[in-house]
Amino acid sequence: MAEIIAFPLRQHDIEDDEVDLLTAVDTAIRDLRDISCACLQEPVRRQAEECRAMLEKAFRASLD
After folding, report:
1. pLDDT range class, residue 54, cuts 50, 70, 90
2. 13 is a domain residue
3. What does the pLDDT look like over 6-31, one tens digit per residue?
4. Which of 1, 17, 53, 61 is deepest in the core (most CB within 10 A)?
5. Rounded CA gap, 9 and 19, in Å?
6. Which residue range is the domain that position 25 belongs to?
């Protein structure tokens, strides 16, 4: 069974009701980078890195 980790809300998450997709992806990329650096479990770290790489590729493509 997966362990669910509750991340604290950031101040901007509380104040903003809506966020555009590119901002959400950019934030997710930075969060995944932080998570993968802090994670000690190799499979989880690798999964976070793969997800981050996928989002970075999609983010760059949307800017072109």
Report:
1. very high
2. no
3. 666 665 555 556 788 888 999 999 99
4. 53
5. 14
6. 20-63
SS3 52: helix
pTM for the model stands at 0.65
Instruction: Determine, yes or no, domain membership for 1.
Output: no
The pair of structure tokens assigned to 60 is 């760059």
C-beta contacts of 27-36 below 8 A and 24+ residues apart: 28/52, 28/55, 29/55, 29/56, 29/59, 31/7
C-alpha to C-alpha distance for 46 and 36, rounded to whole angstroms:
7
Residues 49, 30: Cα–Cα separation, whole Å: 11
Q: What is the chain's length?
A: 64
Q: Tally the domains of the chain.
A: 1
Residue 14 and residue 3: Cα distance in Å, rounded?
25
